[in-house]
């Protein structure tokens, strides 16, 4: 297959993503405000607790079997290698560019974690459905491509909230120890200056039992640490535990249905007695892709409002994510193929390569917000990395398809 034909197959899915992302950005504008900040939070919760679990569980259940589990074992290691290589390159970037100290954790996070969920789930099925795709029959390609992308999303979420979360937490803690004055600013931001409106720190939320325990805990802590401890333990850890629990649960459900033949025959397929359960769950999962893309565009709005992000830091992150990581990824995957660690499935090999050439994960912004460090800079980094992804992901996808075909 010629280069121009491969470029065409790779570019159309990315263009589709850009168009829907632009709609999301437009809906988030202040004058439109359909996807304002509050709306984005609600839609994000809907995607996380309903659409994503449905999407991942149904696709894993349809395609994962006991035999395929043995073949797919390398994907978790490939993603872990991506995170480790990214954090190493991020550390080198920090030593070269010497950015402000409060941005170090953000840089490590952006270099480590790629968007292993949203973009593969959008791009891979679209490539399967393009005429001239090198991955064979479009229906078979779509079925297995969605399974690979769903597994990538689930594994990536676990790594982000364990590996990257702790990197950014340690960096934030070190800054607070070295600059105690910055701690007060973070506390005031996180609490909304609650101490002025509620001098006794008692919460006015809809969960009085939990809040009373938090307030009692607050009174027992040193004054300079109490608000921060409550914020990190009750918000960040609560969010982390819930996220990991949901993704682990849906992986278990999908795997159990897929590898257990009696359960699979009961639920999966037109002739299955409970096929209505699978079809209903699949219908919910189909809403994930357009909703994720709209939210991705809406979340880029803050980046348009400007920030003081150092230019060379931004250039360095783009270079790491779109030049060095993909090149190292080619070496890793090629070595795995040479050692017979990866099956000779072109689509599976393409997914493994693509995992090294994606823009930073959107969850990095959530983690930065939790620790109150580099929020505005993160928005600018996301804006430019996702704008340049239209070129970088297209070119790398073209090269990867040529490599595996």
Structure characterization notes:
It is a single chain. The chain is mainly alpha-helical. The chain has a single domain (3-206, 250-404), classed as Na+/H+ antiporter like fold, CATH 1.20.1530.20. The protein has 19 helices and no strands. It has helices spanning 3-28, 37-63, 66-71, 74-97, 104-112, 118-128, 138-178, 180-191, 194-197, 208-220, 223-259, 261-267, 275-286, 288-298, 301-304, 311-338, 346-354, 363-371, 375-404. Helix 2 (37-63) crosses helix 13, helix 17 (346-354) runs antiparallel to helix 19 (375-404) and helix 18 packs antiparallel against helix 19. The protein is globular, with a radius of gyration of 22 Å. The chain crosses the membrane at residues 12-34, 72-94, 106-127, 147-168, 236-260, 322-341, 347-371, 383-404. One of its GO terms (biological process) is endoplasmic reticulum to cytosol auxin transport. InterPro entries: Mem_transp_PIN-like (IPR004776), PILS1/3/4/5/7 (IPR045033).
Number of helices: 19
Structural class call reads mainly alpha
CATH domain class name:
Mainly Alpha
CATH A-level architecture: Up-down Bundle
Shape: globular
Count the domains: 1
Cα end-to-end separation: 8 Å
Beta-strand content estimate: under 5%
- Which stretches are poorly predicted, pLDDT < 50 over at least 5 residues? 183-226
Number of E-type strands:
0
**Helix content class:** over 70%
Residue-averaged pLDDT:
76
Largest sheet: none
Global Rg: 22 Å
- The CATH topology annotation reads as Na+/H+ antiporter like fold
* SSE ordering: HHHHHHHHHHHHHHHHHHH
Subcellular location: Endoplasmic reticulum membrane
Main location: endoplasmic reticulum
Membrane topology: Multi-pass membrane protein
Family: Belongs to the auxin efflux carrier (TC 2.A.69.2) family.
């Amino acid at each position: 297959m010629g280069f121009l034909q491969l470029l065409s197959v790779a570019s159309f899915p990315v263009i589709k993503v850009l168009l829907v992302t632009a709609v999301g950005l437009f809906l988030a504008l202040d004058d439109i405000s359909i996807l304002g900040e509050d709306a984005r939070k609600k839609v994000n919760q809907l995607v996380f607790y309903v659409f994503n679990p449905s999407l991942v569980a149904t696709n894993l259940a349809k395609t994962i079997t006991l035999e395929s589990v043995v073949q797919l074992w390398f994907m978790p290691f490939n993603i872990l290698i991506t995170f480790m290589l990214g954090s190493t390159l991020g550390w080198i970037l920090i030593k070269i560019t010497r950015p402000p100290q409060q941005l170090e954790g953000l840089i490590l996070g952006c270099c480590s974690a790629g968007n292993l969920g949203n973009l593969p789930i959008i791009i891979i099925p679209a490539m399967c459905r393009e005429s001239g795709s090198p991955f064979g029959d479009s229906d078979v390609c779509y079925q297995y491509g969605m399974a690979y992308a769903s597994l990538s999303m689930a594994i990536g979420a676990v790594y982000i909230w364990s590996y990257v979360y702790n990197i950014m937490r340690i960096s934030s803690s070190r800054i607070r120890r070295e600059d105690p004055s910055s701690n007060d600013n973070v506390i005031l931001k996180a609490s909304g200056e609650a101490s002025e409106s509620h001098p006794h720190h008692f919460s006015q939320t809809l969960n009085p039992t939990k809040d009373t325990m938090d307030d009692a805990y607050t009174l027992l802590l040193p004054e300079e640490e109490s608000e921060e401890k409550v914020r990190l333990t009750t918000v960040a850890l609560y969010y982390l535990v819930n996220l990991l629990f949901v993704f682990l649960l849906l992986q278990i459900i999908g795997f159990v249905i897929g590898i257990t033949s009696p359960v699979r025959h009961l639920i999966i397929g037109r002739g299955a007695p409970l096929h209505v359960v699978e079809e209903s769950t699949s219908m919910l999962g189909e809403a994930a892709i357009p909703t994720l893309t709209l939210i991705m565009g809406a979340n880029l709005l803050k980046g348009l409002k400007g920030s003081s992000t150092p230019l060379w830091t931004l250039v360095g992150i783009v270079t790491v994510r779109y030049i060095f990581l993909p090149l190292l990824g080619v070496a890793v995957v090629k070595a795995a193929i040479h050692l017979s660690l990866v099956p000779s499935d072109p689509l599976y090999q393409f997914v493994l390569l693509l995992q090294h050439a994606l823009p930073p994960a959107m969850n990095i912004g959530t983690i930065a917000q939790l620790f109150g460090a580099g929020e505005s800079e993160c928005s600018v980094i996301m804006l430019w990395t996702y704008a340049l992804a239209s070129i970088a992901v297209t070119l790398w996808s073209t090269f990867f398809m040529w490599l595996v075909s």
